[in-house]
C-alpha cells in the first residue's frame, strides 16, 4: 500500500490544534484535570467524567498492541489496523504503517508516528519499536 | 412498566431474490411490505405505524412511495443491521402506549447493483475515516483479541459456518447451499487475519418485512400468536479509549430481554443470532449467557448449533453466512426465521420440535469500533 492512496483526515476547529502539532511531528492527547484521565479520540469536554475543559498534553505515543488485523486485499492494497494501548491508558484505533503490516502481534510495543499522505497532509500511523 | 406480552408478530415476508438487478430499492421495500401484510391478512390502509432504517433512504419519501396514508407513529432509528430487532422493541412499546396498533417494519436494498453507500461517520470522522476500516477487518480486531484472551481457535469459529451450511442446504432460496467442513473454512482465503472468506456472510439483495400488532388483533386475524415477551437495545462504543473487545453490547441486551421475559438461556429452544461474521455469533452466545464468557469456542464446536444434532439450533434458514444478508443488514431475517420456527413453518429438516420459545439477537455497526445491539424473546402463545 502506498501512502499516496490514503486521503487526509477531515479537520474541524476541535481537532485543528492536534493536526497543527502533527505537522511538526508532535503527538497530542487530551487530558482531563477533573478526573485526571487521558482519553481518545480528543474531545474538549471529557467523555469519561463529562466535566471541565480538557487540556492538550504532549505524549510520546508509545504503547502496546491490544489487537490487530491485516486486510489482505483492498482497493488501495493490503493494510493493517490495530488498537494501540497507549502507556497513558487509552486504546487508540490506528492504522499501522505499511512497512510493519505483516509483523504484528498482540503485546508488541509500538508508537504513534506521522507520515504525509495524499496532498502532503500529515496522517497518523503506528510503527513497531 | 414492561413490553412483556403487549404485542404479537402476525405477518412476515422474506423476499425470494438474492440478486435483484431488475428491481429498484423502493420497489423491494414495497414488495416486502405487501408480502408481510398479505401474510397477516391486512392491507396498507390498516398500517398506522412504520419503522425502517437507513436502507429505506429518506424516510418520508418511502412512506409516500408506499402510500402509507394512515400513519400515527413512525421511527427510523438506525443501529445498522440490528435496527429491525430494535424496531421490534420500539414497535411493541409504541403499541403498548397506544401510539399505533398495526406496525410495519421493512428492510430492502441492492448492494450488488446500487452504487456503494459511503460508510456513515459521525464526530469520529477525522480520526477514523482515513483508516479505511470495513466490517471484515474491524470484526477481525475483535476476533484476534478473543483468541488472545480465551484461546479461541479458527477451527472453533469455523464450526459456526459449518452449522449454518447444514441448515442452508434445505433452503431453496439460500445463496450458498453447499454443506462445508471446518477444513473448507480454514482453506478459504484469508480476508483479514484471523477471518477467512467463509467466516464472512454473503452480500445479497432483496429484503424482508414483518407486521406487529396487539394480541387482540392477532387473535381476530386467526394467526398464530407470536408474542414479544422481552426486548432490549444498547449502544457500545469506544468509551473514550477504554474499549474492551472481549464483549459486545449483547452483554446488556441479551440478559435484559430474557429477564423481562422471565426466561433463562437454557429455556430457549431456537436462537436467531446475527451472523455477519462467525465471531459475531460466538461473542453474542457468550454475552447472552448461553455459555460462560470465553467458552464460546467450545460451545459452538462439534455441531452444537446444528438443528437436530446440537443443544442450541441457530439460524435454521442458513443465516447471513449462507442464506441471506440483505443490504448488509441481518437483523430482519433473524426475526423472520424465529417466527417461522415458532409457527412450525421452518423447513421440516430443520424445524425444532415443539418450538414455543425463541431468542433473537443482533449486532449492527462494527463490533470492534462502535455498534448497536438488540435482543428479543418471542413466544408462541397457545
Ligand atoms: Zn474527566
TrEMBL record, chain A:
Pfam families: OB_ChsH2_C (PF01796), zf-ChsH2 (PF12172)
UniProt xrefs under InterPro entries: ChsH2_C, ChsH2_Znr, NA-bd_OB-fold, Thioester_dehydratase-like
Domain ChsH2 rubredoxin-like zinc ribbon: 19-53
Chain ranges of the ChsH2 C-terminal OB-fold domain: 56-114
PANTHER family for this protein: BLR3430 PROTEIN
Protein name: DNA-binding protein
Organism: Pseudooceanicola nitratireducens
TrEMBL record, chain B:
Positions of the Thiolase C-terminal domain: 243-369
Keyword set includes Transferase: yes
GO MF entry, a single one: acetyl-CoA C-acyltransferase activity
Pfam family, one: Thiolase_C_1
CDD domains, alphabetized: SCP-x_thiolase
The organism's place on the tree of life at top rank: Bacteria
InterPro entries assigned to the protein according to its UniProt record, in alphabetical order: Thiolase, Thiolase-like, Thiolase_C_2
Keywords: Transferase
Presence of keyword Transferase: yes
Name of the featured protein: Acetyl-CoA C-acetyltransferase
Organism of origin: Pseudooceanicola nitratireducens
Amino acid at each position: 500500500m502506498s501512502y499516496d492512496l490514503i486521503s487526509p483526515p477531515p479537520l474541524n476547529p476541535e481537532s485543528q490544534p492536534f493536526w497543527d502539532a502533527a505537522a511538526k511531528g508532535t503527538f497530542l492527547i487530551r487530558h482531563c484535570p477533573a478526573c485526571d484521565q487521558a482519553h481518545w479520540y480528543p474531545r474538549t469536554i471529557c467523555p469519561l467524567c463529562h466535566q471541565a475543559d480538557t487540556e492538550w498534553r504532549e505524549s510520546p505515543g508509545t504503547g502496546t498492541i491490544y489487537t490487530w488485523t491485516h486486510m489482505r486485499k483492498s482497493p488501495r492494497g493490503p493494510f493493517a489496523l490495530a488498537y494501540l494501548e497507549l502507556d497513558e491508558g487509552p486504546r487508540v484505533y490506528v492504522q499501522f504503517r505499511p512497512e510493519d503490516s505483516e509483523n504484528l502481534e498482540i503485546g508488541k510495543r509500538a508508537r504513534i508516528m506521522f507520515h504525509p499522505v495524499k496532498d502532503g497532509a500529515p496522517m497518523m500511523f503506528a510503527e513497531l519499536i | 412498566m414492561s413490553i412483556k406480552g403487549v404485542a404479537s408478530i402476525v405477518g412476515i415476508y422474506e423476499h425470494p431474490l438474492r440478486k435483484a438487478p431488475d428491481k429498484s430499492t423502493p420497489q423491494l421495500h414495497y414488495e416486502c411490505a405487501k408480502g408481510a401484510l398479505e401474510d397477516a391478512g391486512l392491507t396498507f390502509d390498516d398500517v398506522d405505524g412504520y419503522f425502517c432504517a437507513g436502507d429505506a433512504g429518506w424516510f418520508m419519501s418511502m412512506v409516500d412511495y408506499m402510500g402509507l396514508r394512515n400513519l400515527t407513529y413512525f421511527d427510523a432509528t438506525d443501529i445498522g443491521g440490528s435496527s429491525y430487532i430494535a424496531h421490534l422493541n420500539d414497535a411493541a412499546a409504541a403499541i403498548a402506549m397506544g401510539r399505533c396498533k398495526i406496525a410495519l417494519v421493512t428492510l430492502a436494498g441492492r448492494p450488488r447493483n446500487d452504487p456503494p453507500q459511503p460508510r456513515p461517520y459521525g464526530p469520529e470522522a477525522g480520526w477514523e475515516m482515513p483508516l479505511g476500516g470495513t466490517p471484515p477487518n474491524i470484526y477481525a480486531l475483535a476476533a484476534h483479541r478473543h483468541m488472545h484472551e480465551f484461546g479461541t481457535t479458527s477451527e472453533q469459529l469455523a464450526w459456526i459456518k459449518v452449522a449454518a451450511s447444514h441448515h442452508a442446504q434445505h433452503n431453496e432460496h439460500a445463496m450458498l447451499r453447499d454443506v462445508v467442513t471446518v477444513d473448507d473454512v480454514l482453506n478459504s482465503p484469508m480476508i483479514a487475519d484471523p477471518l477467512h472468506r467463509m467466516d464472512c456472510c454473503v452480500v445479497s439483495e432483496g429484503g424482508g418485512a414483518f407486521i406487529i400488532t396487539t394480541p387482540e388483533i392477532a387473535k381476530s386475524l386467526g394467526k398464530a400468536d407470536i408474542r414479544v415477551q422481552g426486548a432490549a437495545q444498547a449502544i457500545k462504543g469506544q468509551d473514550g479509549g477504554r474499549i474492551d473487545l472481549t464483549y459486545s453490547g449483547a452483554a446488556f441486551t441479551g440478559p435484559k430481554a430474557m429477564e423481562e421475559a422471565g426466561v433463562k438461556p437454557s429455556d430457549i429452544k431456537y436462537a436467531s443470532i446475527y451472523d455477519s461474521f462467525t465471531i459475531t455469533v460466538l461473542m453474542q452466545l457468550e454475552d447472552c449467557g448461553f455459555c460462560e464468557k470465553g467458552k464460546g469456542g467450545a460451545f459452538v464446536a462439534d455441531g452444537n448449533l446444528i438443528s437436530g444434532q446440537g443443544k442450541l439450533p441457530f439460524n435454521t434458514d442458513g443465516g447471513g453466512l449462507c442464506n441471506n444478508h440483505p443490504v448488509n443488514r441481518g437483523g430482519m431475517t433473524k426475526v423472520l426465521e424465529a417466527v417461522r420456527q415458532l409457527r412450525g413453518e421452518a423447513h421440516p429438516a430443520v424445524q425444532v420440535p415443539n418450538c414455543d420459545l425463541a431468542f433473537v439477537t443482533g449486532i449492527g455497526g462494527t463490533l470492534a469500533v462502535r455498534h448497536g445491539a438488540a435482543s428479543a424473546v418471542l413466544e408462541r402463545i397457545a
